[in-house]
Structure prediction request, 302 residues.
Amino acid sequence: MYSTATAARFSTPSTMGHARTAQHAASVLMGLGQKRAVPFFLVAVLVVAAHVACVAYAGMNPSVFAVIVGLIGLLCLSVRFNAAETPLIVSVTSPALKTRLALVERTNTDLEAALKTTQARLGQLMAERDTLAVQLTLDPLTGAQNRRGLDAAFATHGEGMVMALLDIDHFKRINDTLGHDVGDRVLRDFATRLRQSLNDSLPVYRVGGEEFIVLFPQARMAAVADMLARFRDDLQNVGVTRSGDGVAVSFSAGLARRDDATQSYADLFKLADERLYNAKVTGRAKTVYLDEASPMGVSLAA
Prediction:
């Protein structure tokens, strides 16, 4: 219960001004709500607060009343500030932005398609590169590997590898008397037959006009000489490769074994070439795998 003096004190023009202030704040908030500048639920809260302040002013200290109205005003300013950013949110859903987003999506689709095309082309180029790399190691006439392939293979072999250097006998005479076409056919047939005799388990390398090399890993030279003797029999007796004039094609060979991993290709080739030369000057159609001075150094063809 309030005393008469208290009621009189809160009925002064000052208190009436507080009421008008609170009512004005409520009306401003209602206007903002009608304009949809402020969310409805926030307007409702602030309007209720203003009316409470208006109704309860009679029992409130003027300082407290001023603080409440001030807080309501700050809330109004905050809401107005947030409302000012509303057009930015509206612009996000604008037709112009939708058009730009559609353009971006189309561009992204085009880029993905271009990426797939590029990846496919890259795969094709890599396949072509691999094919070219293989072709660079092959002799185009015989299909045997060339010196490039031989150098790469030699580096992978260590001690115990046997190098067999083969040379077709009287090949120059075949070319001179029967022509280069026949000579080319002899080279192709010789390389094919040599690969078949090895069951395609070891590569054949062409290193000269009529010279071929086979690398036998971890082999005995006598066993390699025996295998070459059987191959020589096939050429002479079966007649798989003939020059066309009734003379069977044969070959001479020199063997060298890599007993030290530090031996270079040049060192081993020189030794095999020296033994090949010995085979040539001692009658051809044979394989030499030791020094000529040794009685075991010559393996004659059967």
User: Anything to note?
Assistant: DSSP finds eleven helices and six strands in the chain. The longest strand covers residues 162-168. Residues 1-11, 293-302 have pLDDT under 50 and may be disordered. The chain has two domains: 4-89, 147-300.
